[in-house]
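User: Sequence recovery, please. Input:
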């Protein structure tokens, strides 16, 4: 009962349930269900205007905000959708559901990848309830919002990925990066936990260095490549071609080039 929600239906045009998010009361949930039942699916699949509309809905303070994109249609203009999400990652986590066999699977996974969320592909109606249940379990326990990770006392660079806007109980914060010099100093994680300030300081020199984890360098490189290439979108962008080629050759990866 402390949750709030909103609903946007999109085809060629968008239909908005409310100009601001509503308390998740049984009355409001029935109103949302009624809005869905009254609509007829058809026409285009214009996600971008609906997504921009969702982002501009006022955000409530001290809340963990999730934007869930559900579609059974093939969405184009991938790069504009990904750009919109990456520009707003500090405000929300983005989750995506692809339903049926006609969806743009690649974009569904890209949305979740760049939006620091999870993707769900449902090709059979029998799997729908289980996928919805898995999604609910994933987001029902947000632990931290307004997360920041800082480094002090040692030289850290090339950190990938972005710090997520929300930490959920079912997924840790994972950052890949590089460092120079002596392993000393601190890594500090701060955020808001239920309206209270959270702070954890990790002393670097007390953390054992695992020299056998050779795979980490390739995980860093793959994560960097995903970001540089727009999570699989860029194919003919000369501004990133040189960096992508260098990453591929140095870390033995197949790239778009």
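Assistant: Recovered sequence (257 residues):
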């Amino acid at each position: 009962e402390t949750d709030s929600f909103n609903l946007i239906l999109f085809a060629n045009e968008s239909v908005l349930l409310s100009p601001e998010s509503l308390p998740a009361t049984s009355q409001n949930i029935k109103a949302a269900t009624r809005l869905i039942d009254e609509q007829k699916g058809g026409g285009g699949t214009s996600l971008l205007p609906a997504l921009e509309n969702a982002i501009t809905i006022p955000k409530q303070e001290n809340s963990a905000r999730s934007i869930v994109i559900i579609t059974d249609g093939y969405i184009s203009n991938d790069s504009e959708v990904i750009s919109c999400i990456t520009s707003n990652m500090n405000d929300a986590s983005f989750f995506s559901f692809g339903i049926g066999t006609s969806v743009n699977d690649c974009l569904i996974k890209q949305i979740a990848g760049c939006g620091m969320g999870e993707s769900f592909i449902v090709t059979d109606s029998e799997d729908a309830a289980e996928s919805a249940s898995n999604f609910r379990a994933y987001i029902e326990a947000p632990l931290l919002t307004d997360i920041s990770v800082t480094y002090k006392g040692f030289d850290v660079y090339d950190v990938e990925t972005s710090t997520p806007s929300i930490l959920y109980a079912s997924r840790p914060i994972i950052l890949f990066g590089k460092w120079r010099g002596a392993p000393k100093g601190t890594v500090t994680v701060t955020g808001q936990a239920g309206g209270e300030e959270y702070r954890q300081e990790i002393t670097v020199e007390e953390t054992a260095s695992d020299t056998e984890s050779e795979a980490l360098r390739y995980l860093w490189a793959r994560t960097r490549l995903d970001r540089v290439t727009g999570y699989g979108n860029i194919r003919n962008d000369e501004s990133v071609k040189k960096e992508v080629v260098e990453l591929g050759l140095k870390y033995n990866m197949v790239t778009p080039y």
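The mean pLDDT is 86.
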